[in-house]
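Box S1 | Example of a co-folding query
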Amino acid sequence: MTLETGTPTTGTGFPSTDELMRELSEVFAASKVSDIYPGLAQRRRDTPVMEGDLLAEFGAPSMAAGFDGSRAVYTLFRYDDVLAALKDDETFSSSPMQDALGPLLGTVITGLDGEEHRHLRALLSPAVARENFGLWQETIVDPVVTQLVADVAAGDGRADLMGFAVRFPIRIIYEVLGFPTDDLESYELFQARALTTLLGFGSTDPAMADKAMANMMRALESVQGLYDDMLPIVQRRRAEGAVGHDLIAHLLRAEVDGVRMTDHEVTVLARSLLPAAAETTTRSWSNMMVCLLNRPELLDAVRADRSLVPKVVNETMRFEPTSVANARLTTRDVEIRGVTIPAGTGVTLMQGAANRDEEVYADPDTFDPFRTGKPSLTFGWGAHMCIGMNLAKLEMVSALNAVLDGLPGLRADPDAPAPEVAGITLRGARALPVVWG
Ligand code: HEM
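Box S1 (continued) | Returned holo structure for protoporphyrin IX containing FE
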């Protein structure tokens, strides 16, 4: 059964979905930075291995610098250097991610190193294997985006598509995890908690430090609420034999070296997928829409030839990624381009700068869906490469096709400011004002 969506959040004790989205927009747009790329090009040229933390220069929190921002940090800008660091997970530890995300989410796979990481990844991998995607696309992704676009289409021919962008990834991961889809109240609570959890991640503006702390407290309450709701579902699914193709069933069945996960471990892992799967996809999709709405001829070409959709998704990931930086910690002295980075130093990997490296991409500041060549580093590389990449791409393709089908003549609202991408730590559209018909 498919849930009605777009319903106001009622009786959950949370602000309405629209109010939470307004708060998120405030947090997401907290940084006033829009075009970061000329600055990144200059660093790539002048100080490809920079002593210092570019994120700190923008006043953005940096995982590489540690909790109190006191750890020394270097920043890498060139494609080859960022790629080499991502590949060498022995020298470049992911522990800063665990330090930053652990207090909110417990053990996070992205923050583990070595054998511990390999073990957890092996348990998670079958759940997000390619074989599941056809089924998820048919039974979850396509119906969800079609329903949500129908909600938008029922309006008056004018909307801010950020409402759609925020809702569809949460709804999809809710169903992919295997939560009961016939319980509207549980879904509304899940969505409100998921959004509130995102509030704990998003603030990038030091002027909003008090607000960020209050949001963190709300996020902590929400993640506890998610845990308390998810654990009994996990326990029930195990008691029922862990059958089915949803993610929780896969995790319950997963076994590596004779070891299976406990109900607590499955719950913590499933919960940690929320911010990985929701916020990133929302913002990436919004960035793709900015690229298209500001290029009406390309938008028309894509509308007419849907084989271009996956190409537009790939080029968006290179050209306007949501996550422009990643964090690591050196475990030994390492020399890059004649600069020695000492052991125990934080490293900010600017994959956003690497994606526009002129030594790798011709005319890197042009949005060109027909580009061929090396893949971008937006989903990472090596041991920690995004395990949800194919699901994220599937969602982005499906959601773009759904708005093109369901909102005929879709274009930027001529009476609203042109949409733009803003932010530094995680970049996304401030708004997506559109008209159709
Ligand atoms: C467009 C959307 C997405 C982007 C841009 C993105 C980006 C990334 C990146 C850059 C990493 C590597 C982090 C690192 O090297 O430290 C990563 C890891 C990860 N992503 Fe995604 N992701 C997206 C969607 C998803 C989705 C939908 C899922 C859900 C299944 C997901 C689950 C994960 C997990 C579990 C990891 C950790 C893998 C590991 O450490 O072994 N991601 N993601």
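The first strand starts at residue 49 and ends at 51. The longest helix spans residues 209-239.
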